[in-house]
Amino acid sequence: MSYKIGSDGIFPYIKLGDYTVHIMTNLDLELDKEMDIHIVTGNVCPFTRQNIPQKDLIDLIKNGEIYGQLFNAELVTLIEQNQNKLLHFIENHDDYMRGKPYPDYESIEG
Fold first, then answer.
1. Domain count, the chain
2. Which of these, 6, 16, 87, 104, is most buried using a 10 Å CB contact count?
3. Per the domain annotation, does 109 fall within a domain?
């Protein structure tokens, strides 16, 4: 499955097939680790969560709790297949925010 990191502005994003995963942090607060996540395809936003602590977002994906909140089997499959890369992106978001070269996500399994 396709997994690509890109950036159209301040925040980098992940392309998973036809879906784009946007994860944003509050730049105003240095110690604030709350994030917003939006998964979009075209004009549809099948998943969004705002002001979620980084650890809770990681747990949501790692523990599989996110799957019960998704109504698209293709999106569930993409997240399952790329779970470790997605978690790496969240855990190292500050490094991705600095821009290219991005951390070595291509060597991460699934």
1. 1
2. 16
3. no
